[in-house]
Amino acid sequence: MKIEVLGSGCKRCTNLASDIARIADELNLNIELTKVTDIAQIAAYGVMSTPAIVIDGEVLAAGRLPSDEELTQLLTKIHKVQ
Fold it and tell me: Rounded to an integer, what distance in angstroms lies between the CA atom of residue 80 and that of residue 16?
């Protein structure tokens, strides 16, 4: 599962990436996590507000920090689909 955190590199974006990594570890999920800070790449996804989460090329959240519970549900749901 390829997960990208889109954002400027601010504390919120960094915290989101850390939360995703921690929850994926707790769920024993094998993920490839990258942070995207390039404005052109972020714009290519159509994201106007960061931080944003892209999983396997699909923007699933933008402009907010999802709760741990929401991240768990999101990662579990995506993992089951694969």
Answer: 22
- Could you give the angle at which helices 68-81 and 11-26 cross, rounded to 10 degrees? 60
Measured distance CA(52)–CA(54) in Å, rounded = 7
Q: Which residues contact 6 (CB under 8 A, 6 or more apart)?
A: 13, 36, 41, 42, 45, 47, 50, 51, 52, 53, 54, 62
Rounded to whole angstroms, how far apart are CA atoms 12 and 79? 24
- The pair of three-digit structure tokens given for residue 22, joined into one six-digit string: 């921690």
Distance from C-alpha of 45 to C-alpha of 33, rounded to nearest angstrom: 17
Q: pTM score, two decimals?
A: 0.91
Reduced to 3 states, what is the DSSP secondary structure of residue 52?
Answer: strand
pLDDT at position 15, please?
95
Report pLDDT for 77.
81
pLDDT confidence band for 78 (50 / 70 / 90): confident
